[in-house]
Design a protein that fits this description.
Largest sheet: 5 strands, antiparallel
Mean pLDDT: 91
Shape: globular
CATH class of the largest domain: Mainly Alpha
Structural class: alpha+beta
Length: 394
């Protein structure tokens, strides 16, 4: 199978991976034959790409980094927990961020959360995600199919998977990984307390609106802090996931020192907690490779290029180096265009990842430079250094 733009879909194509809604239910299952109605519906719902089964790529098996059922449960649990503060604030007059803060600090939301079994569900699914991630050697590099209106829930799961993988490479123990997973799953809870039009309408935001968005880590922290089932580590991941190495992040302008975020590293006053440095990196990557209301998704190699420019100033250099060792620049099943050599402008699908060189996969060429289907053949880029590729979505 390989990834295809919804604009390229044709009736009769077969869906290669299930489409999961923001409620965690399956909208279209793997193996469904697409019709004009289904294609139109996918576009209207805001999905920009899907995976399709294809005779020339049928042997390319693309597995999620976590079990599909685990992902669905995680989305459902996140949504249920995020709905608690939404419901509590629904009937209140909240014209300013200070009004929202006062409502949070009144204690009703905390009490509702503390007495809810939803927190236990978050703890259980965190444990499950950690177990499944630890079984993986490298990540697939794939993220869930998102649309603008369900970005938050799916984004939280994808950030969790990447952050846990990175923290494991830095030798955090399982208990810390579970705390990390809880913080990641909940890191954007503050977003749901802010007017969703600021995230979902394709328009330029005013300076005041941008400042409002920057309050979401604080709102999330105030909502979750001092709740026994959350814990101080998870709450501070929520608080610090937008802090940058140069101190220009938000909400507190904490700094980083670009050293390895190891388990025993001391957090100095005014500096970012090591686990939050990991979460920031995962957060940036997933945001880049996901479609947003104001732009299409970047391909993973484009995201890598952007993040390299952010290294040292925004992103911890050591975390980014580790990320390049666990995520392939060209994930399995993605389409690429050959940019140099005899087959320049031919289009191929990544058919195998070279674990010793993640940026040089095996590719299966299936279209010529005129986008005409050809008899497939493979090129191992690790053995052909003169051939370069770029990620595309056709």
């Amino acid at each position: 199978m390989y990834r295809v733009s919804t604009d390229y879909l044709k009736p009769g194509m077969v869906l290669g991976k299930a489409i999961i809604s923001d409620t965690g239910t399956i909208l279209l299952n793997r193996g469904v034959k697409l019709t004009d109605f289904y294609i139109s519906k996918l576009k209207k719902l805001g999905y920009d790409t899907v995976f399709i089964e294809d005779p020339d790529t049928s042997d390319i098996a693309i597995e999620d980094d976590i079990n599909e059922q685990t992902r669905r449960k995680a989305i459902q649990h996140i949504r249920a927990l995020f709905n608690v503060p939404i419901s509590e604030l629904k009937n209140e007059k909240k014209t300013t961020i200070n009004d929202i803060k006062k409502s949070i600090e009144s204690g009703r939301i905390k009490e509702k959360l503390a007495n809810s079994k939803i927190l236990k569900n978050i703890g259980a699914i965190s444990y499950q995600i950690v177990d499944e991630v630890l079984d993986s050697k490298i990540l697939s590099g794939l993220v869930s199919f998102k649309r603008y209106s369900d970005f938050t829930y799916k984004h939280c799961v994808d950030v969790t998977v990447l952050a846990v993988t990175l923290a494991d490479k830095f030798l955090y123990d399982k208990d810390k990984l579970i705390e990390l997973a809880k913080g990641c799953l909940l890191h954007d809870i503050g977003r749901v307390l802010i007017d969703k039009s600021l995230y979902e309408e394709p328009r330029k935001l005013s300076k005041e609106e941008l400042e409002t968005i920057k309050t979401h880590p604080t709102l999330g922290y105030l909502t979750l802090k001092d709740i026994a089932g959350i814990g101080i580590i998870s709450a501070h991941i929520v608080y610090q996931h937008h802090e940058q190495q140069n101190g220009e992040g938000y909400p507190r302008g904490l700094k980083g020192d670009n050293t390895m975020p190891l388990p025993r590293k001391e957090t100095k006053k005014g500096y970012i907690m090591p686990l939050a440095e990991i979460v920031y990196t995962a957060n940036v990557y997933d945001a880049l490779v996901s479609p947003r209301v104001y732009r299409s998704a970047y391909t993973p190699d484009q995201a890598f290029f952007i993040m390299k420019r952010m290294a040292g100033t925004h992103i911890n250099r050591e975390v980014l180096k580790m990320m390049f060792e666990v995520i392939p620049a060209y994930p399995l099943g993605t389409t690429v265009i050959i940019s140099t050599g005899k087959f320049k402008n031919y289009i191929a699908v990544v058919s195998k990842i070279n674990r010793d060189n993640l940026s040089k996969p095996v590719i299966r060429v299936i279209f010529n430079d005129r986008k005409k289907r050809i008899e497939p053949f493979e090129i191992d880029l690790s053995a052909n250094p003169h051939i370069n590729i770029s990620g595309i979505i056709i």
